[in-house]
Amino acid sequence: MRVLRDDKYNAILQSARNEFIDKGFKDASMRTIAREAGVGLSNIYNYFTNKDEIFLAIVEPAKAHLFAFLKEKHTEKHIDFEFMSTFAYQEETVEEYIHLLEEYKEELRLLLYHSEGSSIKNFRDLFTEYLTDVSNHHMGIVARHYPQVRDASPFFMHTLCAFMVSIVGEIITHDLDKQKIREFFREYFIFQIAGWRELIGI
Predict the structure, then answer these.
(1) Is 54 inside a domain boundary?
(2) FRET label pair with 136: which of 13, 14, 43, 60, CA 20 to 30 Å apart?
(3) What's the confidence (pLDDT) of residue 4?
(4) Same domain for 114 and 191?
C-alpha cells in the first residue's frame, strides 16, 4: 500500500468524510467515495486497504485529541479543589471543551453514533473505559495529597464516566451553539465540584 500523502489521498479522505457523515460507516459506498474524489475505485486501494482504514484515518485524530485532553485534565495539576472552583479555571476549561467539540463535532458524531460495522464500533464503551481509567488514576493522586479523602465506589466512578460520555453525545446531537455549551458546563462544574466535596470529604 502506498502511503504518500498527495492530492489524491486528501481528495479520497475528504470525499469519504462527506460520505460517512451522510450515510454512516455501514452504508457508505466506496464507489461514491471514488467518484466524488475523482479517482477510479481501484485507485483507492493504492492508498487504503479497505473502507475501515479510511474511516479510521478520519476519526482517529478526534479520538487521539479527545483522549489526550482527558488525560491532561486528570493529572496532578488538577487536584486543587479551591483553584478548580474558580471562575478563571472553569472558563479556561470550558473554552477547551468548546474548541475540541467544535473542531471534531462530525468525527465524534461518527464515533458515537455511526460507526456500526467498523473496527471501532465499540467506541462508546472504549471512551467510557478510558475515562474511568484516568479518573481512577486521578483519584489515586488526590488520595496521596489528601489522605483524609473518602473513596468513591468503582461502580459509581464507572457510571459517572458513562454519564460524561452521554453528555458529549447530547451536546453533539443537539448541535448546541457556543453560548449554550458555556451555560451547560458552568452549571455542570458547580454541580460536580459541590458533589465531589460532599462525596469524598474535601
Answers:
(1) no
(2) 60
(3) 53
(4) yes
pLDDT tens digits, 95-110: 998 999 999 999 999 9
The one-letter code for the residue type at 124 is R
Instruction: Give the torsion sign (CA, 111, 78, 202, 141).
Output: positive
Segment 16-39, tens digit of pLDDT: 999 999 999 999 999 999 999 999
- pLDDT tens per residue, range 78-90: 777 676 667 777 7
Nine-digit cell string for 15: 470525499
Question: Residue 16 sits in a domain of what CATH number?
Answer: 1.10.10.60
Say which residue the cell 479551591 belongs to: 82
Q: Distances from the Cα of 94 to the Cαs of 80, 170, 184, in angstroms?
A: 17, 16, 9
Same domain, residue pair 115 and 192: yes
Q: Which domain holds residue 39?
A: 1-49
- CB contact burial 72-104 (16+ within 10 A = b; e otherwise): eebeeebbeeeeeeeeeebeebbeebbebbeeb
For residues 8 and 39, the answer to whether their CB atoms sit within 8 Å is yes
Q: How many CB atoms lie within 10 A of CB 6?
A: 9
- The residues near 117 (Cβ < 8 Å, ≥ 6 apart) are 25, 26
Which pTM was predicted? Answer: 0.89
Q: Are residues 90 and 141 in the same domain?
A: yes
Stated length of the chain: 202
pLDDT at 5: 60
